[in-house]
Amino acid sequence: MRGFTRRLVAVAAAASVVVTAAPTPAQAHRNDSYAKVAYFTQWGIYGRDFQLADVQNSGAAARLTHLNYAFGPVTADGVCASADPWADWQTPFSAENSVDGVADVAGQPISGNLHQIAELKAANPKLKALISLGGWSGSAYFSDAVLTDASRKRLVSSCLDLWIKGNLPGLPEGVAGGIIDGIDLDWEWPASSGNAGNVVRPEDKQNFTLLLAEFRAQLDRLSRSTKKKYLLTAFVPAAPAKIEAGFEVKKIFKYLDFATVQGYDFHGTWEPVTNQQSALRVPAGAPDDPDFSVENTINAWLAGGAPKRKLVLGVPYYGQGWTGVSGGGNGLFKPAAGPAPGVFAAGTEDFKTLKKLPAQGFTVHRDLRNGHAWLFDGTTFWTYDDPAVLLQKALYIRAKGLGGAMMWSLDGDDERASLTKAISAGLR
């Protein structure tokens, strides 16, 4: 046991060293056998002031294989749309906020995040960009949209027309063609509850498979004319009950290039007791049995028949936090008064903010055996992943034979892209 602990301590220490190195883009891409998928949020360009130029300048882009642009909603009419055309293709970016360092000018064919994604791909030729459809607050109408063969065909056709063919409203035909390389389905969740107000039906389980089949058929048909391969991926849940309710596991991977698996939000401030949100394994003393963990989630997908190499593990770039924690000790599994204050929302905080807390009186605690970390100052508790934890998870991905890692979301990382560099370093 002591030998095991010493090895993991060495791993944790190595992680803090590894991520300070700055490999060249060529080095960062020398092994693309693992998917390194990261979400860029459409709304991050506003209050968070996080731009695609930051993804490039931090070194994150050179270490990714896929960029998921989040989100494109499915409307009540059962078609794909833009949630924010201003962000997607209208807003002009200054030279400072442009990937290529050149300001947008009046009259250019397309602006906005889509133009910046095109610039990001030009600077990183191996990078693929996908549009993520749905998300937590954008999944209300999936069930209606996939109810019949005709409605599925209509939905898929509209998604390809808007996002893949690039036919944007009010702009020349095909102006954004070639920017987006595939579809990422973020239906949260087929046949089980998600955000309040979502339409949910038992037959969502079968209809999700049929939706994938329709996407694959239409994407392949388009490929025959463009001579380009289009990707199809999906974000899938951690909870075994949601897996069972909503997914024909043995069928869906026939159509998917890979699935990104929720590896976070196992616990949070909707609960009155502090806990881990993203541990590799269930920690000793955990109050819930059965409980959530990365290992339990991955094993549930594998038991259902999912191929290992098509499972991409999701990791968080944020933490869940409680305050008013009582009971002493290291703060774990203790009663709390409620969510800790956060910059953008109570109970959650970006890694880039949490990394500064040890200098403000917080102690970093690690469960090296079970792969999680937390911060505690005697009153406030944050469960989070730092570079050391992410290197452990990268080693788990390798040992388990999984397909790679997915990161939610890039705007939570620090200015040096420390988390992305840790994942990249571990998946070489």
Number of helices: 14
Arithmetic mean pLDDT:
94
Give the CATH H-level superfamily: Glycosidases
Whole-angstrom Rg: 21 Å
Uncertain ranges:
1-31
N- to C-terminal distance: 28 Å
Using the 3D structure, state the CATH architecture. Alpha-Beta Barrel
CATH domain class name = Alpha Beta
Total domain count: 1
Number of strands: 14
Element order: H for helix, E for strand = HHEHEHHEHHEHEHHEHEEEEHEEEHEH
Oligomer: single chain
Envelope shape: globular
How is the CATH topology named? Answer: TIM Barrel
Biggest sheet, strands in spatial order? 1-2-3-4-5-6-7-14
Mind summarizing the main beta sheet? Answer: 8 strands, parallel, barrel
EC number: 3.2.1.14
GO molecular function, one term: hydrolase activity
Signal peptide: 1-21
Family: Belongs to the glycosyl hydrolase 18 family.
How would you characterize this protein structure?
The protein has a single domain, classed as TIM Barrel, CATH 3.20.20. The protein is of the alpha/beta class and 428 residues long. α7 (149-164) packs across α8 (204-226). The strands form 2 sheets. An 8-stranded parallel β-barrel has the order 1-2-3-4-5-6-7-14, surrounded by 5 helices. Strands 8, 9, 10, 11, 12 and 13 form a 6-stranded antiparallel beta sheet that branches. Helix content is 32%, strand content 17%.
